[in-house]
């Protein structure tokens, strides 16, 4: 596209220098839209994947100006969407693009489709949804949250999400829902449940359509909403009722988020071992990049709490991970107190860092650690001594009576913190012989599990491979490169959303 | 059919006269009237707009509170749970006039105590998490601190302190309704712990551990739990042998791996 076609009325003279830059962005956006429209012809949603990824890279270059040029160019003048889109992008200014009609005529036909009345042309559903998505991200990035909320309510939900029924849209819809939820979270009061009902309804139809990506986004959004309200019971019920799309059908960042919420729910419901498994999977599934740092921080914090609650002490290196050091500081101090078995120090650090902990909504979990401080103390003693009198324990842990110690130890035995027996008459505890795990089935089971996992991975890869079509020998070369790239990119998808979202995960 | 104000008046006199059974009986027709007037489940939107509706809702809230307290006195916890879930729609709404109430924290604490007495820790902790969004200092609120403290003592295993706390009782008389159930819950906990922690325990010592007055009561309790008592000593049979490796399984697995390996190579 030559630059003389890009004379823009509203852009002031000083901005002329920027024009070429703006043009380049518009060009790139157009390329993305063309790519999106390819999926209309090929019915292959991988093009949408790729477009979303390309857009993520371009996201910070999107401005009010170039978006409005884009809308002006792409949408026909009589399109019902054009007017409100332009108005949303910028309420007052009206950039005009000359020769827009001429440019439109050069665009591939797949960008457009016939309207229902059969006479007028409008942009195709894929392109239209994608443009709405661009506008959403523009509004969020420029912090126009109220406008975004308004835009979502009046236009996106009724006119885009509910109108089209097209499988190629699944991936875009997932993104759109993410922004709707985010905007709602930032603007409305927690008690407003109108969007929740809307999401539930759409979840139902997404499930029926096997639209996994949207389904996964909605499930995580709904869980997030519940956790924000503190409705743990509801969240747990919800999890037991829905089926999260598994494995290869959904992008891994979404899975990571889902596991994170599951972990939180289980931790609050005192099911620590399950919770620990989930938080580990969340950390493994999450992309480890700069953009996902917020998520990693939250997940690591949660992991630290869970480990402590299970009676494990995280290693020192855990607190010195790159980029996490500062945010893990409160947890470091708490861990230190638990490790030393020092109740006073624990109470001190708890009150000192209360604000941070409440903000991470891990405070209630940390309060529970109180009993763990004692338990860790007991555990240390039990590991060190084979046989020790109750009185000595009482002195070591600064507890007030032998009877209290006896109760606490019996509790610790029941919780599996230590393996020991109390001899009441003579007033001592004796650590049981350590069970040799290699005489049990356990190692074999774990080994078996791993081998199965590897086998499964292998067969997944075999079925997941794509081969070029032999009939189109020439075309295929180019296409296969592209598709290979696309498939490989799947895993790195969605990164861009992490930073906007997970910094303030509840 | 008498009208709502008349019924409410009757309810109030019955409650003040401490006739709690009568209260519960009176509440049935009242609730039906409330449903008819659309007051049982608050419509938050119209409450914000309509002053008189808001006042009616406040009366409805008071009625439900009376119902909840009466059911506590009658030790009918299931009914209390029903009232509480209806009340929580009022307590946790975003209309200030509705969510404020003199008995609010008392009733929440009672609810927590019931959960504690029923040993339902999952729900209890979910509830703590939920409440922490509305109340910043759970430990320092005059009513809520009681269940919170009790829970903490029980979690730690400081049963003696918990027992003492129950023994001295609380200023709030409704809380003392739970003393008996909670004591039983504590005993239950200790019994479960003991099964794991001791291989044998003299009856005399068990008596002190479980806060029984005399050995007879202790023996009856032991019988209930199927503990074997011989010559004044309780023995707990709890030895479980770890599973051994079966050679058959190992062979099966090895063959399975071989088959998979073959398909890869």
Brief overview, please?
Chain A: Keywords: Proteasome. The complex is a heterodimer of chains A (506) and B (265). Chain A is mainly alpha-helical and 506 residues long.
Structure description:
The complex is a heterodimer of chains A (506) and B (265). Chain A has 506 residues and is mainly alpha-helical. Among the domains of chain A are: 23-166, no CATH class; 311-384, no CATH class; 385-448, Winged helix-like DNA-binding domain superfamily/Winged helix DNA-binding domain (Arc Repressor Mutant, subunit A, Orthogonal Bundle). Chain A is built from 24 helices and five strands. In chain A, the strands form two sheets. Chain A has a three-stranded antiparallel β-sheet with strand order 3-5-4. In chain A, a hairpin with a 6-residue loop joins strand 1 and strand 2. In chain A, helix 12 (252-268) packs parallel to helix 14 (293-309) and helix 13 (272-285) runs antiparallel to helix 14. The longest helix of chain A has 27 residues, at 16-42. Chain B is mainly alpha-helical. Chain B folds into two domains: 4-182, Alpha Horseshoe (Serine Threonine Protein Phosphatase 5, Tetratricopeptide repeat); 198-260, no CATH class. Chain B is 69% helix and 3% strand. Chain B has 15 helices and three strands. Chain B has helices at residues 4-16, 20-36, 44-49, 51-73, 77-91, 96-99, 104-117, 121-131, 145-156, 159-168, 173-176, 179-197, 203-209, 215-224, 247-264, and strands at residues 200-202, 228-230, 233-235. In chain B, strands 1-3-2 form a three-stranded antiparallel β-sheet. The model of chain B has no long low-confidence stretch (mean pLDDT 78). At the A-B interface, helix 11, helix 18, helix 19, helix 21 and strand 4 of A face helix 8, helix 9, helix 10, helix 12 and helix 13 of B.
